């Protein structure tokens, strides 16, 4: 399982990334086992993106603070 801080602007913390993830109780990080997932409406719409990818349409997951 990989963990990403809420300050990392990567697909795993983006609202457009369709992968399974769990937001920590403190809402400062996400954990995911998915190495890639489909981008849904973002800068790489309908493409499979790695959890560490980035793009200019990044939008932080709303559950993160």
Helix-strand category:
mainly beta
Morphology? globular
Report mean pLDDT, rounded to a whole number: 97
Q: What's the number of domains? A: 1
Beta-strand percentage range:
15-25%
Distance between the termini: 21 Å
- Major beta sheet, strand line-up: 1-3-2
Largest sheet: 3 strands, antiparallel
Radius of gyration: 10 Å
The total of helices stands at 0
Could you give the order of the helices and strands? EEEEE
* Unreliably modeled segments: none
Q: How many E-type strands?
A: 5
Helix content: under 10%
Structure, explained:
The protein has strands at residues 2-5, 22-23, 29-32, 36-38, 48-50. With 65 residues, it is an all-beta fold. The strands form 2 sheets. It has a 3-stranded antiparallel sheet with strand order 1-3-2, with no helix packed on it. A two-stranded antiparallel ribbon has the order 4-5. The chain is globular, with a radius of gyration of 10 Å. The mean pLDDT is 97.
